[in-house]
């Protein structure tokens, strides 16, 4: 008798971290499974640990091997941590992509901004609609979040239904888009849900997330009270917040000037898809200087401290069109993503030093999260009543707290897993049954590198301890043909005693070469290795750090 198909789940990104989301669902047996991918996002590089790395993406080597069995890639919403890796990684998968109208339009605009994007087929699915992908029927259930058209996915299979929540919250008054569809979620619970795979971002926070409507009221009050120029920075994708800022500006008789390419792109897509209907036209940055200080509001990118974004350039006084002066105000209508605190702090301090008033969510309700707090998580569990709950989308603490909450809410089986774990959901006892290849890819300029890449490892080492370059010319008889060339990069000029380190290194190179037996001096590789070791050792002795050392030996 044939065994029934197993339904499995594996996160390849987005578990134990916030960002880089990629989940896969499999249906079949150990030898042959059909796969469904949900989201394909990025996280952002950290200059301290990953110098020069712009984006981090999930390793999709497993899906690449299985691409003939990949039924499609379904998007929950259009945030970068959920769809930002598609352009780079899709050529390895070549699958169809499914998204609702706003996500598809924003993706199209993103592709149009690239130099040579691949031609990626995107099928538009209506909000609340269904799409059949092999043995999976995927239903798009509207949920409130900080971007239009966010959806939980009900993944219906012969082995049971999984609710993949995506990013969500409960907001009865979301300003733009539909509220979370409680009625449909309750119906799903009545029909029977095998597993809930759920957002854990705010599982450490009690209560409920405030509504976008409350933020809009605060922003309107602050803009009305402002005397000079006002700049507001927020996530470009938060169209509800953009509308709230526009309404506040109109009530205060101010023109809205949009500053930053990402903001311009989202505003254009939001207008095309009808989400800014009735909102006044905005002006380009060229018009900023034409308005009196009390008649203008700049809507800026740069809420995360990005060095080339509009707000950083304004704070540094090097933006070609937009300036702020003493008595003006900047509203940070955003929260700082972990890892960006230093960059954001530097901008805030720079503005304060110039006499500009900075308003953040520390003092005023100018931002709310798009993720559920603990009472909302309890509501979702009570509506859906899953047999299994798997916390995702969070760091270890968030996942652990979500799991504890689920156990307290009497969910029969709560499973925590890591990226790469293959989890059997049913039939039978759920649990981790295998480990799939997983990891990280680094976007280094135009090149994708894996995490063991020589360039990434060496750049980190160079950032810490510099580099020593030595060039030596040797005769065929094993004698120095000329003085060695020594170039030290990122290494102090003098030691503690005030002696010049370059000269010390030069002397060590000469003495090392001259101290080698003549047959060894005729071997360029052996000479280079002896010099490399001696140079690293002497620099460590003088400085306390071992640099990368590159030695080139030329036989003349």
Automatic annotation (TrEMBL):
UniProt GO molecular function: exonuclease activity; metal ion binding; RNA binding
Keywords in alphabetical order: Exonuclease, Hydrolase, Metal-binding, Nuclease, RNA-binding, Zinc
Residues in Metallo-beta-lactamase domain copies: 21-219
InterPro entries: Metallo-B-lactamas, RibonucZ/Hydroxyglut_hydro, RMMBL, RNase_J_2, RNase_J_b_CASP, RNase_J_C
SMART domains with a match to the protein in the record: Lactamase_B (SM00849)
Keyword Ribonucleoprotein (UniProt): no
Coiled coil: none
Parts of the chain that traverse the membrane: none
PANTHER family for this protein: RIBONUCLEASE J
Protein name per the record: Ribonuclease J
Organism: Bradyrhizobium archetypum
């Amino acid at each position: 008798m044939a065994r029934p198909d197993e339904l499995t789940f594996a996160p390849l990104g987005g578990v134990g971290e916030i960002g880089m989301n990629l989940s896969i669902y499999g249906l079949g047996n150990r030898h042959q499974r059909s796969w469904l991918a949900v989201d394909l996002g990025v996280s952002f590089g950290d200059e301290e640990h990953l110098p020069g790395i712009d984006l981090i993406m999930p390793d999709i080597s497993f899906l690449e091997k299985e691409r003939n069995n990949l039924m499609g890639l379904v998007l929950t919403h259009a945030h970068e941590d959920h769809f930002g890796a598609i352009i780079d990684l899709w050529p390895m998968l070549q699958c169809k992509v499914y998204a609702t109208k706003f996500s598809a339009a924003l993706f199209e605009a993103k592709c149009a901004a690239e130099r040579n994007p691949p031609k990626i087929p995107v099928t538009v699915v209506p909000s609340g609609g269904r799409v059949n992908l092999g043995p999976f029927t995927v239903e798009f259930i509207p949920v409130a979040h900080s971007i239009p058209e966010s959806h939980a996915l009900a993944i219906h299979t012969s082995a049971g239904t999984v609710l993949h929540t995506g990013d969500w919250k409960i907001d009865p008054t979301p300003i733009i888009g539909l509220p979370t569809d409680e009625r449909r979620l309750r119906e799903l619970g009545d029909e029977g849900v095998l597993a809930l795979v759920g957002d854990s971002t705010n599982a450490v926070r009690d209560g409920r997330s405030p509504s976008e409507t409350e933020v809009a009221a605060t922003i309107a009050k602050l803009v009305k009270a402002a005397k000079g120029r006002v700049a507001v920075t927020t996530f470009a994708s938060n169209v509800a917040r953009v509308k709230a800022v526009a309404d506040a500006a109109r009530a205060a008789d101010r023109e809205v000037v949009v500053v930053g390419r990402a903001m311009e792109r989202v505003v254009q897509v939001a207008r095309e898809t009808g989400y800014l209907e009735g909102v006044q036209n905005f002006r380009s940055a060229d018009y900023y200087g034409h308005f009196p200080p009390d008649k203008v509001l700049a809507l800026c990118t740069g809420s995360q401290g990005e060095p080339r974004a509009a707000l950083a350039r304004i704070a540094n006084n090097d933006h070609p069109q937009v300036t702020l002066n003493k008595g003006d105000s900047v509203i940070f209508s955003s929260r700082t993503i972990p890892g960006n605190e230093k960059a954001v702090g530097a901008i805030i301090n720079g503005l304060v030093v110039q006499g500009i008033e900075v308003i953040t969510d520390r003092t005023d309700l100018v931002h709310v999260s798009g993720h559920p707090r603990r009472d909302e998580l309890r509501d979702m569990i009570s509506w859906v009543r899953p047999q299994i709950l798997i916390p995702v989308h969070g760091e270890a603490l968030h996942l652990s707290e979500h799991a504890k909450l689920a156990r307290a809410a009497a969910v029969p089986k709560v499973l925590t897993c890591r990226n790469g774990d293959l989890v059997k959901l049913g039939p039978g006892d759920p649990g981790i049954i295998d480990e799939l290849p997983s990891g990280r890819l680094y976007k280094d300029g135009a090149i994708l590198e894996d995490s063991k890449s020589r360039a990434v490892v060496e750049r980190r080492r160079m950032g810490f301890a510099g580099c020593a370059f030595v060039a030596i010319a040797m005769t065929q008889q094993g004698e120095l043909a000329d003085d060695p060339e020594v170039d030290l990069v990122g290494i102090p000029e003098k030691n503690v005693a005030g002696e010049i380190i370059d000269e010390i290194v030069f002397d060590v190179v000469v003495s090392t070469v001259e101290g080698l037996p003549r047959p060894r001096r005729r071997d360029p590789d052996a000479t280079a290795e002896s010099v490399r070791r001696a140079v690293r050792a002497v620099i460590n002795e003088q400085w306390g750090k071992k640099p990368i050392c590159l030695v080139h030996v030329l036989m003349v």
